[in-house]
Every structure is written in structure tokens, then in C-alpha cells.
Amino acid sequence: MRRERDVRAGREAREPPAPGRPDPIHIRVVDLYKSYDGNQVLRGVNLELERGRINIVIGGSGAGKTVLLRQLIGLEKPDSGHVLIDGVDIVPMNDVELNQVRRKFGMVFQGSALFDSMSVYDNVAFPLREHTRLSEREIRQRVLERLEDLNLKGAEDKMPGELSGGMRKRVGVARALMLEPQILIYDEPTTGLDPVLARSVDDLIVEMRERFGVTSVVISHDMATVFRVGHRISMLYKGVIVASGTPQELSASDDEVVVKFLRSSGVHPSAL
Fold it and tell me: Side-chain half-sphere of 71: how many Cα atoms within 13 Å?
């Protein structure tokens, strides 16, 4: 079954979209390998991330999720293979070209990664000040609009330490959206959160996709999030994708690795 799936993925990767229509696959990873000091971490990853959908990459600790993420946004170059964004391979690009590609991405980090010494306003304004030539007046207008979009109106003068966990996450998303990215990447967004706050983060992921039409890529091992919000799930195990499909297809998989992972998580889609 896995071989048939890999063959199908390879065939789809070679077929261009119809003229005048955007490719439904926003990011394609083809036969990607990456090692460090002789330790092979990615072992031929083939992955398709769908445009405008919530794509989740799951896997246990040490599966290679973080390494794969670094390849997707061009922070590292693989040993071999291809990462195509909007049909363009970023692997051979130089730093200047990669910086342009990275403008398509917004990153929401595990701990929100806010600057504790900056106000909410300055945290959200930071990308505009670093990467644009907008005036402070234009920056202020955009920041306040985005804060209102994220239900953070009136929080602009607060410091990160004054915010609840949910508000910190929303500020992180607001900052990630400032350069109007096409793709939002969430790195372990619910790790360490209590169930109520984790559910609010799940709702936020869905809301951002629906309101802004972004392609969402969620790196996670939280199966509650996977079954609650994911459109397409891909499981990374020992450096390869062993299964990809909808949550329903994943839960019905007879792949031994997938079955064991789902059982150990203690979460089943029927319970959500």
C-alpha cells in the first residue's frame, strides 16, 4: 500500500496544473535527504502540502519534524532532493532569492517567541520595521488593524508578561501575518498547554485559514489537534513519510507504525 501511495505522489508531483489554474499543491517535497555528521535524519521525504488547507505533519520525538521544517523555509539546504514552492525549487537558490521566498511564510513558534522587552504593539510592528520602508504612520495603521482582527484591540500597550497564554499566541499570529504571507507555519502550537487553551489555539488555526485564506502547515504530535482541525495529515517516522491522508484515512490505516502511534496517543477522532 505504501509503495502505491509513493508512486501516486510521484506521479502527481510531475503533473502540472491546468493552464490558468493555481497548483492545488502549494509545497512539494521530493526525495529529500538531510544528515548531520553522518547521522541521516531525513531519508527520502516525499510530501505534498495542499494550498489553502490545514496540513499537519505528525511524528514522535526524533522523527525529523524540526529538520524538515528548516528545509521547507530554506533555513538549511538538504543533502539532496527538492523543495518546490509554487512550483519553484528553492534548493538551488542563493540567499537573496531565499529571502524573497521567505516572505511567503509566517512563523508561529511554540512559545510565541515574543520579545519580552517590547510591548505588544512593537512586537507586531517588528516585521514591518525590519522588512519594509513604511512610515511609522502606515505601520501604526496596519498594526492596529491586525490587532483588531485578532481580537486584541486595546492590548497594544501591554507587555508580553501581562498577557494570558491565549493572548500571547494571538499576538504571535498577528506578528506572523504582518507581511501578508501565503503560508502560515505553526511549530508545535499546543505543546505544554492545558486542554482548554489548546482548544482555543486549534480554533485560532481554523479561524486564520478561513479569514485569510492561508495555507497552514502545523508541525505537531498532539493528536487531539490533528483530528480536530487537520484536512491532510502526514506522518513522519524515522525520516520518511509513512502515511498521508485525511484524518479519517489515517485513523483507518493498517500501517503498523501509524496504528501504534495512534494507540499510544490515547486519542481517537470519534471522541472529539
Answer: 31
